[in-house]
Design brief:
Layout: H1 2-7, H2 13-23, H3 27-72, H4 85-115, H5 130-138, H6 168-173, H7 184-202, E1 209-210, E2 220-222, H8 224-230, E3 243-253, H9 257-264, H10 267-273, E4 278-288, E5 299-306, E6 316-326, E7 332-338, E8 350-352, E9 355-361, E10 367-377, H11 387-391, H12 398-416, H13 431-453, E11 461-462, E12 472-478, E13 487-498, H14 502-510, E14 526-534, E15 542-549, E16 559-567, E17 570-578, H15 580-587, E18 600-606, E19 629-640, H16 649-675
Antiparallel strand pairs: 1-2, 2-3, 3-10, 4-5, 5-6, 6-7, 7-9, 8-10, 9-10, 11-12, 12-13, 13-19, 14-15, 15-16, 16-17, 17-18, 18-19
Helix pairs in contact: 2-3
Length: about 675
């Protein structure tokens, strides 16, 4: 078993049974041996990591002692004698006075720059401490302090060659005193340099990108050699141990430029629109609200957690500054760049290089959005099943952001539509009813995605030793939350591969006529669609209200709210049982926040990038990868209505059995369907 473990630490059921036959052991003994061995290896790895961290800590302590000794033996530059303590503090006082003078100079020039929008202004680096002053003196004039060690081409040039663009003066002046006040000049400088890089990378004629030139093709990938040639100084060297990941994609979306900017600069709205990608978003400090009542020059420090809908892909956390700028040609740009030197955590697993979007206003309320994603990540914890998808950049890349934005813009347009035809049966025509139902479905999908990835923002606790090796089971207690039923909730999620294209899996799962083939809770009853709201051009994007006509008359009042959504990067089918009375209130325009629901459902992704040279086909964006699908199944179930009750092992076993049975039914149904001639 030791030899087999080296080759395959995660044997499947078939391999375990084969080993048990060869060794004369029970399959459970083999299973537990592999579980224990993996735990043992993990502990060894953690001990090794701890030893490395302790060694690094000792090294830093020794370095700190050397610096203290160097300060203690400091000599006077004039006479060579020992420097008195009074002289040291006098020098420090002089530096503080000089810093104050430079700050006043920045404010004065900022005022001049604000009156001449579009004219640049010279950067004055501000030193926040005597050590920073000494370090600056030792550096070359071109080396500017920053989270990435930014090198500016503007340094050493005339006043016409500027680092800060239009609005940067106001950006500096409008910063209120706060935790990051001392770092304000460095953050501003970094943001402006990042904006310059983003604008150059987003240009249509940029030679940095390869592939994806034709409409509908996969996202463009960064040419690393060309990137180094274009940005020789860049924003610092590549971080050791982190893998670069960069992509670009664009689309025309049905939303005005102003509305897009408002979403991008509001953390809560951003997290709501991109709930399938962003599990948590926070604004820590607003350094500037913008100039002249607009977001031009707005600057804020944020943190976010990014996710892929699978328990097999760890989330990515990033701490960064977001900067918004209105360019002279009328376009708007929003850029993110990591603040590594200010990051609360010393362990960096996701470093956000200049990433963001360029927005161009188009006629009739449309906008063209060009999105650039450029990160460095430690993705060693990604499961092998998802590695081709993650390595291709499709899991977290620009195509997913653009596809989600395009779909959500169509969804918002649908919510605001007033000219709904009355001809189709079941179409909800009431504007207030549509808004309430879409808002409820939006909360349902966000709760589902957060539960699948075990985001810290959703307060789930993972259970160890829950029985099923390939299923992650989590629990949470729901108290005083009107949007969830009170009690203990179990969440079980698993991901697996299907040899069927994603589009076929999506169509099968969202179709109410085939629901009885996999939905155990419907008890084999027929499912009928009572009402629906179309969410855009693709008929797969819709919110439906389903009724289960069960043979058991006690369940005749059971309704299911379901949202199905699809774009070029992936698909979701999310549903939740809802109360009839509560849904009547929602359909009449009532507040959906007081409807208690527990979402379950599916996330469907391609199993990797499309093969080289594959011809793109409109509307078939999901038929990519190796022809297979990565399907995640997740259930949230109330196991006890008393929040203080103890969780029973029987409840965990029931949830494991439910998800295992559902998986087997789906495999049997879609694979049998795929084997039939179409």
């Amino acid at each position: 078993m030791e030899a087999f473990f080296k080759e395959c630490p995660h044997p499947d059921d078939k391999q375990r049974k084969e080993l048990s036959r060869e060794l004369g052991l029970e399959p459970l003994q083999v299973k537990f041996w592999f579980q224990n061995k993996r735990t043992q290896m993990k502990n060894q790895h953690e001990r090794h990591e701890n030893a490395q961290l302790r060694a690094e800590n000792d090294k830093l302590r020794a370095e700190n002692m050397r610096y203290k000794e160097a300060l203690g033996t400091a000599s006077c530059p004039s006479c060579g004698g020992p420097a008195a303590l009074g002289e040291m503090s006098f020098d420090e006082h002089h530096l503080r006075l000089e810093n104050a003078r430079l700050r006043d100079e920045i404010d004065r020039i900022s005022g001049i720059a604000a009156k001449h929008v579009g004219k640049p202004m010279v950067s004055f680096p501000v030193l926040s401490s005597p050590l920073a002053a000494a370090a600056a003196a030792a550096r070359s004039p071109l080396d500017l302090a920053g989270a990435y060690g930014v090198q500016s081409a503007a340094a050493g040039l005339g006043a016409d060659h500027v680092l800060f663009g239009a609005g940067a003066g106001d950006l500096l002046r409008s910063v209120s005193a706060g935790q990051l006040d001392a770092d304000k000049p460095m953050i501003v400088e970094l943001a402006v340099a990042a904006m310059d890089e983003l604008l150059r990378m987003a240009r249509p004629d940029a030679l940095l990108w390869g592939g994806g030139a034709s409409a509908g093709a996969q996202q463009q990938q960064l040419d690393e050699e060309e990137y180094v040639r274009t940005f020789p100084a860049g924003l610092g060297p590549r971080q050791y141990g982190l893998r670069p990941e960069a992509s670009r994609d664009s689309a025309v979306v049905i939303m005005t430029c102003d509305s897009l900017i408002e979403i991008l600069m509001d953390a809560n709205r951003f997290a709501a629109v991109f709930s399938s990608i962003v599990s948590r978003a926070s604004t820590h400090e607003v350094l500037s609200t913008g100039v002249a009542g607009s977001y031009n020059g707005a600057l804020q420090v944020m943190s976010m957690e990014f996710q892929v809908p699978s328990p097999l892909v760890p989330t990515r956390e990033s701490y960064f500054v977001r900067y918004c700028k209105n360019n002279p040609d009328g376009t708007w740009a929003v850029v993110d760049v990591s603040l590594d030197s200010l990051r609360p955590s010393p362990v960096i697993k996701c470093r956000r290089r200049p990433s963001g979007c360029l927005i161009q206003e188009m006629p009739n309320g449309y906008s063209k959005v060009t999105w650039v994603e450029h990160v460095e990540v430690d993705d060693r914890s990604v499961h092998n099943l998802y590695r081709p998808l993650v390595n291709s950049g499709l899991a977290f890349g620009a195509k997913r952001w653009v596809g989600t934005l395009d779909r959500q813009c169509e969804r918002l347009a649908s919510a605001m539509a007033s000219n709904i035809p009355n001809g189709d049966l079941g179409v909800i025509t009431s504007i207030e009813g549509r808004k309430s139902m879409l808002k409820l479905a939006e909360r349902m999908v966000a709760s589902f995605c957060g539960g699948v990835t075990a985001s810290a923002a959703h307060q789930w606790t993972t259970l160890s030793g829950s029985g099923a090796e390939d299923v992650r089971v989590m629990t949470r207690k729901s108290v005083d939350d009107p949007g969830r039923p009170p009690g203990i909730v179990l969440n079980a999620a698993t991901s697996f591969w299907l040899p069927v294209p994603p589009k076929r899996v999506f169509d099968f799962l969202r179709d109410e006529t085939s629901r009885s083939e996999w939905d155990i809770l419907s008890n084999g009853g027929a499912v009928q669609e009572m009402a629906h709201i179309a969410n855009g051009r693709d008929h797969g994007n819709c919110v439906s209200l389903l009724r289960v006509n069960s043979a058991n008359s006690n369940q005749s009042n059971m309704l299911i709210l379901q949202e199905s959504c699809t774009d070029a990067s992936g698909s979701y089918v999310v549903y939740a049982p809802v109360d009839v009375v509560a849904m009547n209130v929602v359909l009449n325009g009532g507040d959906p926040d007081y409807v208690a629901l527990l979402p379950s459902g599916f996330a469907i992704l391609p199993d990797g990038p499309p093969p080289a040279g594959a011809a793109p086909s409109h509307g078939e964006g999901l038929d990519t990868g190796g022809g297979g699908s990565l399907l995640t199944v997740a259930f949230q179930i109330l196991v006890d209505s008393v929040p203080t009750a103890k969780l029973s092992l029987g409840s965990v076993a029931t949830v494991n059995s439910l998800i295992a049975c559902t998986v087997e039914r789906i495999k049997a149904a879609v694979c049998a369907e795929a084997g039939n001639p179409q």
